[in-house]
Amino acid sequence: MKKQIDYGSYASYKETVKGLTENLKSLLGLSEExxxxxxxxxxxxxxxxxxxxxxxxxxxxEFKRGKSTLINAMLGQEVLPADVLPAxxxxxxxxYSEEPYVQVEYKNGKSERVDINKLEDYVTKLTAESEERAExxxxxxxxxDTEFCKNNVDIIDTPGLNDDDQMTNVTLSILPKIDAxxxxxxxxxxxxxxxxxxxxxxxxxxxVGRIIFVVNCFGTFSQADENKIVETVRGRIGKYVMEKAxxxxxxxxxxxxxxxxxxxxxxxIGVYAKQALNAKETGDKEALxxxxxxxxxxxxxxxxxxxxxxxxxxxLANKITNSGTEILRSVVMxxxxxxxxxxxxxxxxxxxxxxxxxxxxxxxQEFVKINDAANQVFNDLxxxxxxxxxxxxxxxxxxxxxxxxxxxxxKKDQLKLVTAKLTEKIKESIEARAxxxxxxxxxxxxxxxxxxxxxLQEFEDEFFESVTKIQQMFTxxxxxxxxxxxxxxxxxxxxxxxxxxxxFLGFRESGVKGALLGGATGFAGFYATYYxxxxxxxxxxITATLPVTLCLMAxxxxxxxxxSNFAVDKILVKxxxxxxxxxxxxxxxxxxxxxKLNNDFTETVRRQVFSAFxxxxxxxxxxxxxxxxxxxxxxxxxxDLKTEKSNISQKEMERLHDIAESASAIVQEAYQVRxxxxxxxxx
Length: 683
Description:
Oligomer: single chain
Subcellular location: Membrane
Structural class: alpha/beta
Low-confidence stretches: 479-484, 493-502, 504-571
Pfam family, one: Dynamin_N
Main location: membrane
CATH superfamily of the domain at 56-307: P-loop containing nucleotide triphosphate hydrolases
CATH topology of the domain at 56-307: Rossmann fold
InterPro entries: Dynamin_N, Mitofusin_fam, P-loop_NTPase
Strand order of the largest sheet: 4-3-5-2-6-1-7-8-9
GO molecular function, one term: GTP binding
Distance between the termini: 20 Å
């Protein structure tokens, strides 16, 4: 009978995690009981990581779209400050605590605990004093007793995207780290020019699948108009997203076909957040339904549990089947080995040690193939890398060529404004071009690593077959143990049906958290954020650590350089313009040349490529060595016992049987969970 698993709500998801965690704790005790030290340590690490796991949801959008009000509606009470003026000036995280207070983390590394009633004095722009203090704050964590956050969900309130560049960059910096984002749009001015440009130029293609777009401030329109606004916004978002994906992946590529299927129709929901907040505070269920807020909350819950959370559940179930199966193998091996004649055992022992050595040798051969794959990816990217600076420079030159100017632009005061405007256009064009190139590069890396993970399926199958072969070496042909048949069946199901043991789940599923939960610690830059958020930070003001900023500083100062050159009225307007643009190009080329010398883009990409494939190797190494080391240590311990001519007692036999029965029941249950989750992920 197919096992029923409910994880569609926060409560049921937590309950499912709790059940899997309890089973994993039981396996921890069993592995310690039979001295599987490495398996026990691995289980312990998984349990610690699971205990720390929680969903993170960021609320983003232009200033004054009602982000803080939306959060307060989610919490059911007015926790965060909201005002008619742009209020939020820092990242504000809301997390669960029975005792309400605020922990303020400053940019200088210091932290301070403050009364929750004084929150607006630290994180808003409502007064000159609070704005000055907010500039020193890195993040404020609001600890509060709310039902929403009790579900292991943290909400992050972000500064307005279009408030100022610094606040926009603060928001952009957290997008790669979260599980879901809620992009708030105003129904009164749906899809502003900034929102359009943000989607086209700054929102990464890989982010869109984890965003819910909320059109706020409904209640003042007719139902027909509300529906029309939502459909218009949904259509525009879909258009911008797909057009960008085509540029990044190529319209005819397999990646684009998969992306289009997975992304589907953008999630766009119209709500009236203020009404929802009032309704929750007064307990008015009818008003809450009219606000359409329950639909939004359900969509968010589904995204977190059924789409993001299922990966975490799959990894827990995989860990149970892998660890449980290893316990079963060890029990069978110990029981049979202790009953073997010494000569027969020593013969099998030598064969087993040799097999372990051969497995490790095969693994080294696979590592060579992975290195070859990384080299191939890097070589395939070489034409893009070689032309990178040329493309960026060409983009700047085209902006200069197409920039419209007149004779009035050469007046002394006007020229500075014109130069600043041209500089800004160059910045925007460079940003857009660099974004596409870098996402194309990252997409190539992602696809190559995914293909390599699929290729490794054969090695994974061979690995588990070899481990099973070692256990079978110690089978006594003329004797069937009491539980041997059951254990063989369970082992066969766990290995035969899945083969990989779920080792590389995180590499094959989308989402940052999926990769990290899967143990892919070498994949910190797996998604297309590294280049745009770090390497090109200097262009966009995120950081001033890269020499790229020198370009913009030089461009901003060009007005002073050129003013004296164009003070003679006798020069014709066209000549003035041509001369101005020629000098501008010269300065820009000079800056690009210096940037190219000081920033080895090719080396940056090379490190990213090999870091991605090293993550794959690291996962293989850690997971296989857990099993191999425990197998070898078990054999060595048995060898010591056989040397001492110790016989297995009836009591010890019963103890091993009890361990096997407990482990087999847990593995069977986890196998059913895995099957259900796999079907859900493939549907």
